[in-house]
Write a structure and sequence with these properties.
634 residues; 5-stranded mixed β-sheet; 22 strands
Length: 634
């Protein structure tokens, strides 16, 4: 499905696209301890003024849906939408736990929810307007129309499964936008959602940009996936520069808004129809936001250092650049390392020997030197050693690094424990703690052909060899690496390069797509370990179901947690137990890193704020000291 494929290849690009992470720098004393945290704590500020233009650059936009909110699934795009669009509920776009909390946005208050959890009723704030050229009041029907677009097959809503099969009347198969039976709009300020079954994270789903209001008089003109992306009408504090010049009198009269060219730039300026008094979630200090495309990553960081740009953005700093900021006391305050709610892991295929044996999987976890892997990445600036599936922030810090079912001194691995576990495996024929069966030899391990993966590969290979598992590394370009492990019939035993980052602050965004048998697809599959696969699925996808132990199924666990209310403390406790079950009874991964997103700023960025919800700098909370006139941007 496009949903899963684009998740990994699209939204998950921000650290997947790192260049040269493996520092020749071992300057941080905590490198072996698995610490890390943030350099900035998520925010910093000096003298804050209103005005100026925030300037940054990226090597490419990499949009997965041509910037049409209905289908777009890129994390950086979500950050842009935070400045362009408003939804019924939203976060404050700040760092930490506070940045994952929901508040009313277009809504006057949080919704009334029926006792059975199936009906959500909202009242909307009156007199909030679309930006130019529409300039009219946003109504409940404009929000409903966004869901009509999600439900339309040809518009390819890449995360449509969050709504289709959840809201009554939605299946994502409609031939064209049409009213949805499960959504009522009895008047212009009331909207009611009726669900098929309780979904405790439904409010988070309503904060995603695909649900932002779309004016039908413009949206109706764009019937193919992505086409609306160059005509997005603002409902937020900023608009695409030139939107006020858009001739929306007819579909044929509209030409792409000048401020957005996918190959060159995205320029956003203040929306004159926006009323700050209706919005206590966004500060909106800057007058303009300019994102330029610069294919030379070194040039981007040179411009940051010179002050021509106010900060880096999606691209992570090359090792030589990062070394300068780590070693220079005057520059250290300009280096921001913020937790990205992302787990990097080695995946083991439960459908392929010897990883169809849980004792082999546990032994692999026990022997792995995660401290050495972190050092290969460049040290603790890149994050914290992971000891379980979901980042602690996603679990409300109710499960932290202190829970480590495969603990070892200094995270260096424990060979004795690993060998004791391996002795229990049917692949250790003489019970000496070594995987000595033929199935343990010359296993393909797929990875990417760039650092830090090329630097961590010797660590992983040598550690596995200690317990008798020998591997044949296959280093591939990014796209090929993911496509190879996402194709079930390829039967890849090990993948060294996957990661996962939340869509929103609820564990369901990890649990379902990564571990539900229902989420397994022949291609574009991200349940790499094939947890929950049935014999029938295996046959249909051209692989043999394991003859030994059955592949564990956790679909019931996911459903049990999901039906609990979003504010019910039992929900988080349920997900904590689920994470522990995965680590102790299923063992699909060797999680090794909860990563940071690194941003380099200049003194000209007078207020730095990290947006926990999107895992990037917060465009609606930062401030700059420059006097650039937004009207002069080209």
């Amino acid at each position: 499905m496009t949903f899963e494929r684009q998740k990994m290849m699209g939204k998950r690009r921000h650290l997947i696209g790192m260049v040269g992470l493996a520092l020749a720098v071992t300057l941080v004393a905590a490198a072996c301890g698995g610490g890390g945290g943030t350099t900035s704590g998520g925010s910093s500020s000096g003298s804050v003024q209103k005005g100026g233009v925030y300037r940054t650059a990226t090597t490419d936009f990499g949009f997965t849906g041509a910037f049409d909110p209905t289908g777009e699934y890129l994390a950086t795009a979500f950050t842009y939408y935070n400045a362009l669009l408003r939804t019924l509920v939203a976060t404050k776009h700040v760092a930490g736990a506070a940045g994952n909390k929901l508040y009313p946005d277009l809504a006057t208050a949080m919704p009334t929810i029926s006792s059975d959890g199936l009906t959500y009723s909202f009242k909307m704030k009156p007199n909030i307007k679309f930006g130019p050229p529409v300039n009219r009041v946003i109504t409940s029907k404009d929000v409903e129309y966004a869901f009509e677009r999600i439900n339309t097959a040809s518009l390819v809503a890449q995360y449509g499964t969050y709504y289709c099969g959840v809201i009554k009347g939605m299946d994502c198969k409609a031939k064209s936008p049409a009213p949805i039976s499960g959504i009522q709009t009895p008047d212009d300020t009331t909207i009611v959602f009726n669900l098929e079954a309780p979904a405790g994270d439904f409010l988070y789903r309503l904060a995603m940009p695909a649900t932002a209001p779309v004016p039908q008089e413009v949206g109706k003109c764009f019937t193919k996936a992505g086409d609306y992306g160059r005509f997005v009408i603002s409902s937020g504090p900023y608009m695409i520069q030139g939107a006020d010049k858009l001739n929306a009198s007819s579909c044929s009269s509209m030409k792409p808004i000048a401020g957005f060219d996918p190959s060159r730039k995205l320029i956003m300026v203040r929306n004159p129809s926006y009323d700050q008094s209706t919005d206590d979630l966004r500060s909106n200090f800057v007058n303009g936001i300019q994102i330029s495309v610069d294919t030379n990553v070194n040039d981007i960081f040179d411009k940051v250092q010179s002050g021509a740009l106010d900060s880096s953005y999606v691209n992570q700093p090359p090792k030589t650049v990062l070394a300068r900021y780590i070693t220079d006391a005057k520059r250290k305050s300009l280096l921001h390392a913020d937790a990205s709610d992302q787990t990097w892991y080695i995946t083991m295929n439960l459908g392929q020997p010897p990883f169809d044996d849980i004792h082999v999987r546990k032994a692999a976890n026990l022997v792995m030197d995660k401290a050495a892997i972190l050092q290969a990445w460049g040290g603790p600036v890149w994050g914290q050693i992971a000891t379980h599936i979901m980042p602690p922030t996603v679990l409300g810090n109710q499960l932290t690094q202190s829970y480590d079912p495969y603990n070892s001194s200094g995270f260096h691995g424990d060979l004795a424990k690993a060998q004791a576990e391996m002795k229990q495996s049917r692949y250790d024929t003489n019970k000496d703690g070594t995987c000595d069966a033929p199935q343990c030899k010359n296993l393909v391990i797929v990875s990417r052909n760039v650092p830090p993966f090329t630097d961590m590969e010797p660590v992983v290979s040598s550690d596995l060899a200690k317990i008798g598992i020998t591997v044949n590394p296959r280093e591939l370009a990014t796209g090929a690496a993911y496509q190879t492990i996402q194709t079930v019939k390829n039967k890849i035993p090990l993948g060294m390069h996957p990661s996962w980052i939340k869509d929103y602050a609820d564990p369901f965004t990890f649990a379902f797509v990564l571990f539900s048998g229902k989420a397994i697809n022949p291609t574009g599959n991200v349940n790499y370990s094939l947890v929950g696969m049935t014999p029938a699925q295996a046959q249909s996808m051209g692989i043999q179901y394991p003859s030994g132990e059955r592949i564990p199924v956790v679909d019931g666990d996911v459903a049990n947690c999901e039906r609990l209310g979003g504010t019910d403390p039992a929900r988080t406790s349920c997900w904590v137990s689920f994470d522990k079950k995965l680590m102790e009874q299923v063992v699909p991964w060797i999680p090794y890193l909860w990563s940071n997103n690194i941003t380099i700023t200049t003194p000209g960025l007078t207020r730095y704020v990290y947006d926990q919800s999107s895992s990037y700098i917060s465009l609606t909370q930062i401030a700059v000291g420059n006097k650039v006139d937004a009207s002069t941007l080209r």
